[in-house]
Amino acid sequence: MHSREQISHDEYQKTADWLMSQTRHRPQVAIICGSGLGMLADTLKCQDSFAYSDIPGFPQSTVQGHAGRLVFGELKGKTCVCMQGRFHMYEGHSLCKTTFPVRVFKLLGVETLIVTNAAGSLADSLQPGDIMIIKDHVNFPGLVGLNPLSGPNDDKFGPRFPAMSGCYDKGLRCLALDIAKQLGVASLMQEGVYAMVGGPNFETIAEARLLHRLGVDAVGMSTAPEVVVATHCGLRVFGLSLITNKVVKSYEDSESVNHEGVLEVGRLRSHTVQQLVTELISRMEINNNNTINTAV
Ligand SMILES: O=P(O)(O)O[C@@H]1C[C@H](O)[C@@H](CO)O1
């Protein structure tokens, strides 16, 4: 684990410059697709897509259900960039590598980041197939010093000590709940607290009980570092957890979770997640006025 690896501003800039030389899209919104949720990119029109292996400086995806493609395109009048596949700490990436794309998005002019993930539920009110709007998170690796912002601060991106108290935008959370009502899927949706654990193993029963007692509603292995870096550099953030399984909390329970089951729930709910994200992007207000840059 190289958690203290540093990436210079120039390296982020080089990747952003390369992307801007390859596509005329200038994205306002970035989407990170969680396990089994890569179909979110399919909604984009006028696509330009790049394999991660072709993008200078980009890490590689190694997890099944994470295709490893960056897709640019238009959605309901907004320009978007979508990561079909994210990077996890448990793959052996340093935290600054797992969050590398977020700073590149900032340099591309992105203003809003939408993060999605697959997660197991601890709250009794959350069933597999439900969608949790992330209200807040507990960054367990971060609490013990595994933080992508560790090391010298890059003041060009943000301050040394960024506040995280309002990191999931309240206006977007309210808008998403409103959209859920209009789409007739409000019964599937509620707000909750996501916790990131390091993975790659799923939780023991004792760990599940601990998380439950701490007030965690859903647990996963990603998202928090991306949100920390996004908030540090001033991006507005919206997050969704697709609940793919109930975390086993009882010694009497003979069920156990596996990655195939996680991906399967992603496929089953793909249409609803797509509709929600599309409507949210369509209705969100954007301050800047990026459109396709015909000069490139
Ligand atoms: O990328 P996400 O957080 O959606 O992936 C979750 C956590 C693990 O990577 C995997 C477990 O099935 O899904």
TrEMBL record:
<comment type="subunit">
    <text>Homotrimer.</text>
</comment>
<comment type="pathway">
    <text>Purine metabolism; purine nucleoside salvage.</text>
</comment>
<comment type="function">
    <text>Catalyzes the phosphorolytic breakdown of the N-glycosidic bond in the beta-(deoxy)ribonucleoside molecules, with the formation of the corresponding free purine bases and pentose-1-phosphate. Preferentially acts on 6-oxopurine nucleosides including inosine and guanosine.</text>
</comment>
<protein>
    <recommendedName>
        <fullName>Purine nucleoside phosphorylase</fullName>
        <ecNumber>2.4.2.1</ecNumber>
    </recommendedName>
</protein>
<dbReference type="InterPro" id="IPR000845">
    <property type="entry name" value="Nucleoside_phosphorylase_d"/>
</dbReference>
<feature type="binding site">
    <location>
        <begin position="86"/>
        <end position="88"/>
    </location>
    <ligand>
        <name>phosphate</name>
    </ligand>
</feature>
<feature type="domain" description="Nucleoside phosphorylase">
    <location>
        <begin position="29"/>
        <end position="281"/>
    </location>
</feature>
<keyword id="KW-0328">Glycosyltransferase</keyword>
<comment type="function">
    <text>The purine nucleoside phosphorylases catalyze the phosphorolytic breakdown of the N-glycosidic bond in the beta-(deoxy)ribonucleoside molecules, with the formation of the corresponding free purine bases and pentose-1-phosphate.</text>
</comment>
<dbReference type="Pfam" id="PF01048">
    <property type="entry name" value="PNP_UDP_1"/>
</dbReference>
<keyword id="KW-0808">Transferase</keyword>
<feature type="binding site">
    <location>
        <position position="118"/>
    </location>
    <ligand>
        <name>phosphate</name>
    </ligand>
</feature>
<feature type="binding site">
    <location>
        <position position="203"/>
    </location>
    <ligand>
        <name>a purine D-ribonucleoside</name>
    </ligand>
</feature>
<dbReference type="InterPro" id="IPR018099">
    <property type="entry name" value="Purine_phosphorylase-2_CS"/>
</dbReference>
<feature type="binding site">
    <location>
        <position position="35"/>
    </location>
    <ligand>
        <name>phosphate</name>
    </ligand>
</feature>
<dbReference type="InterPro" id="IPR035994">
    <property type="entry name" value="Nucleoside_phosphorylase_sf"/>
</dbReference>
<comment type="similarity">
    <text>Belongs to the PNP/MTAP phosphorylase family.</text>
</comment>
<dbReference type="GO" id="GO:0004731">
    <property type="term" value="F:purine-nucleoside phosphorylase activity"/>
</dbReference>
<dbReference type="GO" id="GO:0005737">
    <property type="term" value="C:cytoplasm"/>
</dbReference>
<dbReference type="InterPro" id="IPR011268">
    <property type="entry name" value="Purine_phosphorylase"/>
</dbReference>
<feature type="binding site">
    <location>
        <position position="245"/>
    </location>
    <ligand>
        <name>a purine D-ribonucleoside</name>
    </ligand>
</feature>
<keyword id="KW-0660">Purine salvage</keyword>
<dbReference type="InterPro" id="IPR011270">
    <property type="entry name" value="Pur_Nuc_Pase_Ino/Guo-sp"/>
</dbReference>
<feature type="binding site">
    <location>
        <position position="66"/>
    </location>
    <ligand>
        <name>phosphate</name>
    </ligand>
</feature>
<dbReference type="GO" id="GO:0047975">
    <property type="term" value="F:guanosine phosphorylase activity"/>
</dbReference>
<dbReference type="GO" id="GO:0006166">
    <property type="term" value="P:purine ribonucleoside salvage"/>
</dbReference>
<feature type="binding site">
    <location>
        <position position="222"/>
    </location>
    <ligand>
        <name>phosphate</name>
    </ligand>
</feature>
